[in-house]
User: What shape does this take?
Amino acid sequence: MKVIHDIAALRQWRRQLTGPLGFVPTMGNLHAGHLSLVRLAQQHAQHVAVSIFVNPLQFGAGEDFDRYPRTLAADIEQLESVGTGLLFAPDAATLFPIPQTCHIELPPLAQDLCGRSRPGHFRGVATIVMKLLQLLQPDMACFGKKDYQQLTLIRLMAEAFNVPIEILGGETLRADDGLALSSRNQYLSAGQREQAAQLYATLTSVAAQVQRHGLHDLTRLENEAEAALATAGWQPDYIRVRDRRLDPPQAATRDLVVLGAARLGETRLIDNLEFIVTTPG
Assistant: This one.
């Protein structure tokens, strides 16, 4: 695997490449979920590049930018183990040679769901993703479905700007108890880790109730789910049922997703579950 840290070397590598390029952008501290995205990219492209960059644009005041795990040596070993072709690992000075005063402006969805409690987060994500896409010029890119809102917004951005790229969503990998794999899981204490799968269990319960009873009274179901998490010691941000484009579902909507975000102690966890409803709304 080739490891590149500067833009000039990256562009030279890209110019010499023949065949389709797949791309997996990450913030490092890699786990099996990230590696599954690399494998997904390998199924669709002759070459695969991964980026590792902890993006300051997507962290708000008081968030965990400074303590976000940075494990480059271990990440390189993992990427080599799955046959990654290139790792692009720039520092902030490389990606921001001048202050980043130009940003991607996103539709109102960016201020909904996670965007309500993390203002500016998705603008920061979209801006750095667009920068990386311009640098690597991939034919396709893979993003995890665990970050469902992020994936949806990246797809909207690519479509709106006519970016000639295919965006693929990789399925969420889970621990045996259902907890979605995430770099932030390591923040959890042993006791919190035992409790953490309750978020996915809550989403599963909401999906099952919608499948049984249809789409009426969603607000009650969402509120009850949030209240149950709060009673169990969580600080719920939201539980919402949406269609697959993250709009409120209509009576005829059948392809749905239930999304949730909540804090357990100091750790904010997010998750989602796609499902199909056949009961009339």
